[in-house]
Design goal:
Length: about 300
C-alpha cells in the first residue's frame, strides 16, 4: 500500500477482521456520545475501500458499517490507518478527500440517501502530533470567508499520547495487548523491555491465529539476543509459554527460509550476468546452458 508500513497495516487489518475485536476497538476509540448511538451488534466489515488512488500513498482504510440505535439508518465507521512517523498539518485535507471520495462511491453505488462516514484516524508514530481541523490551515480569515471552507470532524485516536492506564481499561484484554504493542511500535527500546509483560496481559484471550499474529508482530519489531529470548520464555505464564515458543520457532524458520530464497535469487542473478557476458563474447547457447545450468529459454531471453 504505497509508503504505508506493511507490517503495521497487516497487523491492524488482521485485528479488525474479527468482529468482536472490531466492536471493542471502535467502542474504545469513538467518543462515548457517538458510541452510545450505535448498535454494535449489527456491525459488519465492508469489502470496499474509500481511499482514492492519490490517498493510497498516505492512508489505508478498514470500513465497517452498523445501524444506529434510534432508527434503521446505517453509519459507516471507517478506520484510517496512518503510519507517518512525523506530524503532517495537512492531514485534514487528506481526511476531507477521503470523506468526499466515500460519498462519491455511495452515489455511484446508487444510494439515494447517503450514509454518514465517521473517520477514525489511528496514529502511533514517534513524534507528537496535534489534532488539526481544516479551518486552521487558513490564516486570519474573517467569518464571511470561513463559510466557504468545508467543516468536518474526525476521531483522532492517538495511541502515542494515550496513557497505558486508559488502554488497560479496555474490556477486551487481547485488544489491550495489541494496542500496547502498537503504542510502543516506534519506541523499540521500551517495547523490548515491556513486550513480555504485554503478552502476559492478554495473549491467552485470543484465538490461535490472533495469538500467532500478535507474537509475530511483536518479535518482528524488536531484536532480542538468544539469551534474552530464553529469559523471556522462562518468565512467561504457563498458559501462553507454548504458544509464544512455537510461534517464535516458526518465525525463525521463516527467516531462515527467506534467507535461503534471497541467496538462491542472488546466485540466479549472478548466472544471468555471466550469461550476458558470454553472449557478448560469442559463446553458443548450448555452451552457455552447459556452463551456467540456466535453461535454454532463460538464455534466449538475454539474446
Amino acid at each position: 500500500m504505497g509508503n504505508i508500513s506493511t507490517v503495521h497495516d497487516t497487523f491492524v487489518r488482521g485485528l479488525l477482521a474479527d468482529k468482536q475485536l472490531a466492536v471493542d476497538y471502535f467502542r474504545s476509540a469513538l467518543p462515548e456520545h457517538i458510541a452510545d448511538k450505535l448498535d454494535f451488534s449489527t456491525m459488519e466489515q465492508l469489502s470496499e475501500t474509500y481511499v482514492s488512488a492519490e490517498l493510497e500513498k498516505t492512508f489505508s482504510d478498514v470500513v465497517h458499517r452498523c445501524r444506529r440505535k434510534d432508527c434503521a439508518e446505517t453509519v459507516d465507521i471507517s478506520l484510517l490507518l496512518e503510519h507517518k512517523s512525523s506530524p503532517d498539518k495537512y492531514t485534514p485535507v487528506q481526511v476531507g478527500g477521503y470523506l468526499f471520495s466515500g460519498y462519491q462511491q455511495q452515489i455511484k453505488q446508487g444510494h439515494e440517501q447517503l450514509s454518514p462516514i465517521i473517520p477514525v484516524l489511528l496514529y502511533h508514530g514517534r513524534q507528537k502530533w496535534e489534532y488539526w481541523t481544516l479551518d486552521r490551515l487558513f490564516d486570519e480569515l474573517d467569518q464571511d470567508l470561513l463559510g466557504f471552507i468545508p467543516k468536518f470532524d474526525y476521531v483522532y485516536h492517538n495511541l502515542r499520547d494515550l496513557s497505558e492506564a486508559t488502554i488497560r481499561a479496555v474490556s477486551n484484554q487481547f485488544l489491550v495487548s495489541a494496542l500496547l504493542v502498537l503504542k510502543y511500535a516506534f519506541d523499540k527500546q521500551r517495547l523490548k523491555v515491556k513486550l513480555p509483560e504485554i503478552l502476559s496481559l492478554g495473549l491467552a484471550k485470543g484465538s490461535e491465529g490472533q495469538q500467532a499474529g500478535l507474537v509475530i508482530y511483536g518479535f518482528e519489531l524488536v531484536d532480542y539476543t538468544d539469551k534474552q529470548i530464553k529469559e523471556i520464555f522462562k518468565g512467561l505464564p504457563a498458559e501462553i509459554k507454548d504458544t509464544v515458543m512455537s510461534t517464535y520457532d516458526l518465525l525463525i524458520e521463516k527467516g531462515i527460509e527467506r534467507g535461503r530464497q534471497e541467496e538462491r535469487a542472488k546466485i540466479h542473478a549472478e548466472k544471468l550476468e555471466i550469461a550476458r557476458e558470454m553472449i557478448k563474447d560469442g559463446f553458443s547457447i548450448q555452451q552457455i546452458v552447459k556452463f551456467t545450468k540456466l535453461s535454454i529459454e532463460e538464455v534466449e531471453e538475454k539474446l
